Amino acid sequence: MQKAIPFLETVQNLIYILKIKSDAMDLTTYSKHFHDGNLININHKSDNIEISLESSQINKNKPTDIILSKSNTIKGKLHFEKIKQIKIGNKKWLGILQKIYDDGEILDLEIYKNKVLLLIEWNNFPPKPRESDVSKIEIEAEKIWWENIPTLAEN
Q: Among the four residues 5, 47, 132, 147, which has the most C-beta atoms within 10 Å?
C-alpha cells in the first residue's frame, strides 16, 4: 500500500517539475551533493533511461531552491530522452543499462548539457557473495532533465 502524499507537497512537487521542464534546471549546482549519495534504481526502456538518485545529506539550514526529502537529501530521477550513446568504462554499451548489484554509491556525478558522467562503486551484501566493482558510466542524450521527488522510496 502506497503512503499518501500531503496535498501541499504534491502541488509543490508538480510546480517544481513543471519549472524544471520549462526552465531546464541546472542540476550542476547540486551535483557536488551527490558524492557519497546512492544510485537507487535504473529504468531503461528503448531509447530512454530514468536513474533514481539520492544525494548525501545537506545541511537543512543552508538556503536551497530545491525541496529536500525528510532526511535532508535530494531525491529524484535523472531522465535521459533519446539516448545517443552509452559507455561503460571507455567501451560503447549496446545493451540495457541496469543495476545488477545491491548498492550503488555515487563517487562522482558530472552533468553537462547533453551528457552525464557517473562514477559508481557497486557492492553486494549477504546472502549474496560479497562483491565490489567500480563503473564509469557515460550517457549522452538529446534531452536530460531532473525530476525532484523528495518522497521517492528505495526499490
A: 147
* CB 53, CB 37: distance < 8 Å: yes
| Pairwise CA distance, residues 43 & 90, whole Å | 22
On whether the CB atoms of residues 38 and 120 are closer than 8 A, the answer is no
pLDDT per position as a tens digit, 78-135: 999 999 999 999 999 999 999 989 999 999 999 988 999 999 999 999 999 989 999 9
H or E stretch including 14? helix 7-23
Q: Which DSSP helix (H) or strand (E) runs through 44?
A: strand 38-45
Separation CA 52–CA 66 (nearest Å): 16
For the chain, give every domain's residue range.
Answer: 7-148
pTM for the whole structure: 0.81
Cell of 113: 548539457
